């Protein structure tokens, strides 16, 4: 298998105008090498490969606490629902991530080993019918048993 594409992003800790709908449309339909590195470029490439070859795609979002993983996942989902459309409900992104605060509360609980750090991993699966988003599920798994 060919190696995947890696994007290193830095959380600026403030809102920037690089995630607006106009930027989504600027990346839509473009080849990755024609655009600046961006989560929308990765999402477009995954979307294009899924549509072209009908094969599942994965985006792995990793980083330290506060690095912006949740926001990056939201931006990717926003890209898919904007470009591919959303059958039935346009608030898919909000619904999928609605359980996040509750799960984070458990993950951020103080333990004897760690004062405050999330110990959950998340797997988000977005369903498509043709090119439209049809739904999504989020699976949260515990990385540290002492949180239970």
């Amino acid at each position: 298998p060919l190696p995947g594409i890696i994007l290193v992003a830095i959380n600026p800790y403030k809102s920037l105008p690089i995630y607006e709908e106009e930027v989504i449309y600027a990346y839509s339909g473009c080849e990755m090498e024609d655009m600046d590195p961006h989560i929308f470029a990765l999402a477009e490439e995954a979307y294009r490969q899924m549509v072209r070859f009908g094969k599942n795609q994965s985006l792995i979002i990793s980083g330290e606490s506060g690095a912006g993983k949740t926001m990056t996942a939201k931006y990717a989902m926003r890209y898919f629902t904007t470009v591919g459309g959303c059958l039935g409900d346009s608030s898919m992104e909000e619904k999928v991530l609605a359980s996040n605060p509750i799960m984070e509360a458990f993950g951020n609980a103080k333990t004897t080993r760690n004062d405050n750090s999330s110990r959950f991993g998340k797997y988000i699966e977005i369903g498509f019918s043709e090119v439209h988003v049809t739904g999504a599920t989020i699976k949260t798994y515990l990385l540290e048993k002492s949180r239970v």
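The chain has a mean pLDDT of 77. The CA atoms of residues 7 and 60 lie 10 Å apart.
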